[in-house]
């Protein structure tokens, strides 16, 4: 087991309220030296929290960004497990959460522009914000796993199409933490099902995560990429995710790209039907062994943006990585973070 001593940072929580009245927050992390490269916002995925970028590894992405001189801001949007479970959609997050988070950072720092690192459903929703022209101040966007074109394995398609409607009749949420504590009959039934079908490790939350979010054993990372501490730490980093979100992502997967779920006039109905209202440069990342969203997701999105503006955007396929291990892997500081930093430093 590797020992990990976190560097000494000062951090403060900066609350903000969205235009639809939801109380969210940003975690602002500073090191010893004053950052000279401007602010960067890190956006987490579904059913986790901002803390997901700070796994107990030798060097986290936060460590590297601070060392590089970036001003680091972690966003807790309405899907974060630090807040009470709610029936969020990607539309709500795109319209209300990310634009207000960006405005809050700019107000706090006095800067006029910032960069973003976005992952999974933080990435799809942030992509929606960008295409809709709601975050024009964001100049560079590092997107991991999925963005405009969600492509999933066949087993995931089956689960989305047939199992989600079934489970929705019993519960409004799925929660991988049921592996540790299963309150009620539905939670116990799902935990039993997971334990009968998943034998890849002894971590009940790890197994529930794979059941909830993809295909494979495990689905969101490769075990060989995680140190023991991280594998154990994950138990407390996953929480409730609404089935309503899975309804939306099912529609998007069936259409082959992001579509709206609710009827907000400000948001496009179809995100591939109009030219994106953003000048941001995108760097698309995917683990080649991602079993949550296939690498094809990011390849398609890169091809789409590259056709609109050739030789501006970039694509990085990471051979031995899956989904979240791109950030939490024990060797990510060597394998993936330098590529991310190089992209951030380009402009």
TrEMBL record:
It comes from the Bacteria. InterPro entries: AB_hydrolase_fold, Cholesterol_Oxidase. One of its GO terms (molecular function) is hydrolase activity. Signal peptide: none annotated. The keyword Kinase does not apply. Its cofactor is FAD. The keyword Transcription does not apply. Keywords: FAD, Flavoprotein, Hydrolase, Oxidoreductase. Belongs to the GMC oxidoreductase family. This is Alpha/beta hydrolase.
């Amino acid at each position: 087991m590797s020992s990990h001593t976190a560097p000494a940072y000062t951090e403060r929580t900066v609350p903000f309220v969205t235009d639809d009245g939801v109380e969210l927050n940003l975690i602002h992390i500073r090191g010893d030296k004053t950052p000279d490269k401007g602010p960067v916002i890190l956006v987490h995925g579904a059913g986790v929290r901002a803390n997901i970028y700070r796994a107990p590894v030798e060097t986290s992405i936060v460590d590297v960004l601070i060392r590089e001189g970036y001003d680091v801001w972690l966003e807790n949007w309405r899907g974060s497990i630090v807040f009470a479970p709610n029936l969020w959609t990607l539309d709500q997050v795109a319209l209300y959460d990310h634009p207000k988070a960006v405005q809050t950072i700019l107000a706090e720092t006095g800067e006029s522009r910032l960069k973003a690192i976005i992952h999974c459903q933080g990435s799809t929703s942030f992509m929606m914000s960008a295409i809709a022209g709601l975050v024009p101040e964001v100049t560079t966007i590092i997107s991991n796993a999925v963005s405009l074109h969600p492509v999933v394995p066949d087993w995931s398609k089956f689960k989305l199409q047939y199992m989600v409607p079934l489970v929705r009749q019993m519960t409004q949420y799925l929660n991988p933490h049921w592996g540790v504590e299963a309150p009620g009959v539905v939670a116990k039934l799902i935990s039993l099902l997971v334990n009968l079908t998943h034998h890849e490790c002894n971590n009940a939350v790890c197994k529930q995560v794979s059941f909830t979010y993809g295909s494979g054993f495990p689905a969101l990372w490769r075990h060989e990429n995680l140190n023991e501490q991280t594998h154990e730490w994950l138990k407390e980093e996953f929480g409730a995710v609404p089935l309503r979100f899975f309804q939306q992502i099912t529609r998007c997967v069936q259409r082959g790209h992001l579509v709206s779920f609710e009827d907000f006039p400000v948001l496009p109905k179809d995100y591939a039907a109009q030219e994106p209202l953003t000048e941001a440069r995108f760097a698309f990342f995917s683990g080649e062994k991602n079993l949550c969203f296939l690498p094809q997701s990011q390849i398609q999105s890169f091809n789409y943006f590259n056709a609109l503006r050739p030789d501006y955007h970039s694509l990085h396929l990471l051979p031995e990585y899956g989904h979240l291990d791109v950030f939490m892997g024990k060797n990510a500081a060597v394998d993936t973070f330098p590529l991310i930093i190089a992209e951030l430093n380009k402009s």
